[in-house]
Amino acid sequence: MKVSIITAFYHGNDYMKQYTDCILANQKHMSKEDELEVILVNDSPGEAVELPIDGTDYNITIVDQKENQGIHGARVRGLKEAKGEYVMFLDQDDILAEDAIAKHAEKVKQWQQQISKMNDGNSFVQGTGLEQLMLHPVSVANALLEQADGEKLLWYRSQYHKNKIGDYKTYLKVGVQIISPGQCLVPKKMIPVIWTTNICKANGSDDYYLWLLLLSRRIPFLLLDEPLYIHKYTGQNLSADTTNTDASVYEFIEMLKQDTIISEKELKLLRRQIEYKAEFRKGGIGTKLASTVKNLDIFVANVIFKLRSKTPYGFNR
């Protein structure tokens, strides 16, 4: 299996030593049958990418953007250059375990072997769209979230939460269950065209956009239950800026209205969830109560999720 790591570079030279160390470690752990390519999309026009000068061949392809396209645009540009069957959208400031890519690849191959055995001789399944969906899963690893004080919190803490990584309704009523696409190996051929042609200008939720599209098509999401990904705390993480991420969600909802992949009813539910949580975060007691009464179904779903998932964050995140 060939895997492509795609990274959007934006004023990221301070992270390049950490990044290249991570890449080299993963290259060394790849099996003889597998291959890893790395594509770094420079989305900082006028600034050169500075890899460590130590004589090492990092085997990294650098693609320079003529103008800033934002993280979604940079990821799509990298996707166009990628030759891998599977891709990972790894952020410049995050870290993988040294054998993360190898373990993801092995997880996918084991799944594909199991599905092929199940489908052997089944003329009803072979050659159908169902077979293609089942043979190209998304692999999702557990993650560690670094806090401001350096503590690292495990993300999937309960079996209930682990069962929700591929539950479409949870993404609509509660929110995205994947911290970052750096947790995931994604089948390139299953990424919908709409995601590569309708680009979010607001940064922050293009991955949420992608997961919804894949889940709506019933692509399997597999759990690799090891913390192979570390979401580094920088104080500038996009995922911490709910105003920005909300704007990104509203943007892709409008894009999806022009398509039939996700129903109008589901888009309305998603928008109501985002709007309700924004009101809950920013409003006083009166606003919180009034908004909760109007969105009781979402409130109940989130409270149940919070209690059963044991996540370290509050209901309104």
Strands, helices and their partners?
Blueprint: E1 2-9, H1 16-29, E2 35-42, E3 60-64, H2 70-81, E4 86-89, E5 95-96, H3 100-119, H4 129-135, E6 138-146, E7 152-154, H5 159-162, H6 168-173, E8 184-187, H7 193-197, H8 206-216, E9 221-231, H9 242-256, H10 264-282, H11 285-294, H12 296-309
Parallel strand pairs: 1-2, 1-4, 2-3, 6-9
Antiparallel strand pairs: 4-8, 5-9, 6-7, 6-8
CATH class equals: Alpha Beta
Radius of gyration: 20 Å
CATH superfamily membership: Spore Coat Polysaccharide Biosynthesis Protein SpsA, Chain A
Count of individual helical segments: 12
CATH topology: the name is Spore Coat Polysaccharide Biosynthesis Protein SpsA, Chain A
List the quaternary state of the chains: single chain
Q: Flag low-confidence runs.
A: 123-128
Basic shape: globular
Structural class: alpha/beta
Name given to the CATH architecture? Alpha-Beta Complex
Number of strands: 9
Number of domains: 1
Kindly estimate the percentage of residues that lie in beta strands according to DSSP. 15-25%
Give the distance, in angstroms, between the N- and C-terminal Cα atoms.
Answer: 37 Å
- What is the string of helix and strand elements? EHEEHEEHHEEHHEHHEHHHH
DSSP helix fraction: 40-55%
Main pleated sheet: 9 strands, mixed
The mean pLDDT is 91
